[in-house]
Structure to design on (417 residues):
């Protein structure tokens, strides 16, 4: 039994984890596969080619294209469609520009690499600005520009205005590069495999638990000294209908208990939502599974009506019942009421007579009206509450005799009519 419960807990835990993983992967796949238009750039290289020290500037001159230059730098910039939606030539409201700051001047600019190879990119140079003519760029397409700069001040701006793109994003971190280089179909395939594997593991554990899981059939362990008394509560909420005369329906109203370890240390009975026009007509008998019974009430009070009363029968209550009203009472049975079709070996006057016995078996209450004209009901049925000590083994009891057909009085001098 414990093995089976452990497997149930494991299956539930795996199911919860699988559900969380599936949700997370679904969100990741959605974020990675949703339609988005994006343009990014990355500075691949920025280094000095020529730098003339101040002390030799008067003795050394460098010419480029016939013009003297100082502090020459090479700048490599990569432009990438980092989304999954093509950027068409008509999307460019303003082309991509690289504009130098300060006294910097563009000496030359050219495209050095592109993917795909047939990606046609044209550059236009104008003093401090390199302009990229609009070109069709599908998702993942990129091109790299090489810009030779004189009098480089160390700063520049890259700008463009593209429909659906808020701004050009800078790729700087390694994570950005990893996501950029990892193809989208690979992401989808990996996520789908993870989801399928997780779901398959969950189904395997559920199948093993429901059908093929070995169960622990070892006997229930004996009570240990560390065990403590505990309370069990059982109810039968079926309405008990009391006729104008005779046995109620159902008769008896039963509660079955099983699988409880230990013996009874205390027992209380509660009847719920009781209404009747003349309560002195009504008798209530509790019958245990071992052939023993206790009359809870009989011929109590006068013939007064009772409406929606809850009665608790408890040996430790302060008073016996003299009139019927909601409250806690000691059993107040009298032995002058007959309960037909009841087979008991003995009738007691206190609920403590069940102490030491096993709680397992079928318990019932018999409700009988021994006078005509009035009717009633237990609208809420009845409840049985027990304190059980697992450290104490129950007493052995004999089953009720089949020959016993009526309640025997608690004393020889008293008879049941």
């Amino acid at each position: 039994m414990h093995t089976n419960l452990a497997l149930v807990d494991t299956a539930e835990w795996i199911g919860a984890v699988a559900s969380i993983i599936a949700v997370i992967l679904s969100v990741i796949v959605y974020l990675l596969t949703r339609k988005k238009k994006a343009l990014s750039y990355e500075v691949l290289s920025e280094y000095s080619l020529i730098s003339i020290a101040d002390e030799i500037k008067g003795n050394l001159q460098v010419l480029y294209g016939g013009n003297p230059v100082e502090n020459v730098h090479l700048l490599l910039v990569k432009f990438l469609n980092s989304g999954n939606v093509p950027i068409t030539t008509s999307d460019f409201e303003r082309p991509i520009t690289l504009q130098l700051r300060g006294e910097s001047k563009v000496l030359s600019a050219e495209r050095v690499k592109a993917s795909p190879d047939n990606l046609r990119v044209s550059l236009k140079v104008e003093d401090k600005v390199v302009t990229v003519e609009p070109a069709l760029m599908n998702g993942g397409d990129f091109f790299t520009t090489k810009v030779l700069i004189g009098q480089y001040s160390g700063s520049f701006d890259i700008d463009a205005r593209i429909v659906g793109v808020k701004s050009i994003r800078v790729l700087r971190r390694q994570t950005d590069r990893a996501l950029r280089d990892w193809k989208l179909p690979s992401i989808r395939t990996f996520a789908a495999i993870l989801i399928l594997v997780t779901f398959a593991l969950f189904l395997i554990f559920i199948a093993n638990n429901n059908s093929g899981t070995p169960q622990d059939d070892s006997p229930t362990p004996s009570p240990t000294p560390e065990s403590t008394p505990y309370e069990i509560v059982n109810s039968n909420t079926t309405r008990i209908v009391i006729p104008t005369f005779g046995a109620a329906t159902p008769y008896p109203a039963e509660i079955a208990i099983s699988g409880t370890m230990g013996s009874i240390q205390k027992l209380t009975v509660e009847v719920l939502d009781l209404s009747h026009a003349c309560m002195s007509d009504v008798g209530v008998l509790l019958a245990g599974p071992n052939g023993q019974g206790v009359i809870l009430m009989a011929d109590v009070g006068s013939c007064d009506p009772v409406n929606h009363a809850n009665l608790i029968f408890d040996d430790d209550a302060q008073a016996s019942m003299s009139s019927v009203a909601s409250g806690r009472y000691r059993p107040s049975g009298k032995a002058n009421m007959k309960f037909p079709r009841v087979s008991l070996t003995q009738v007691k006057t206190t609920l403590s007579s069940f102490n030491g016995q096993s709680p397992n078996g079928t318990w019932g209450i018999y409700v009988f009206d021994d006078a005509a004209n009035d009717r009633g009901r237990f609208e809420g049925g009845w409840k049985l509450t027990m304190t059980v000590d697992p450290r104490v083994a129950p007493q052995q009891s004999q089953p009720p005799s089949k020959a016993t057909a009526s309640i025997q009085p608690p004393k020889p001098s008293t008879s049941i009519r």
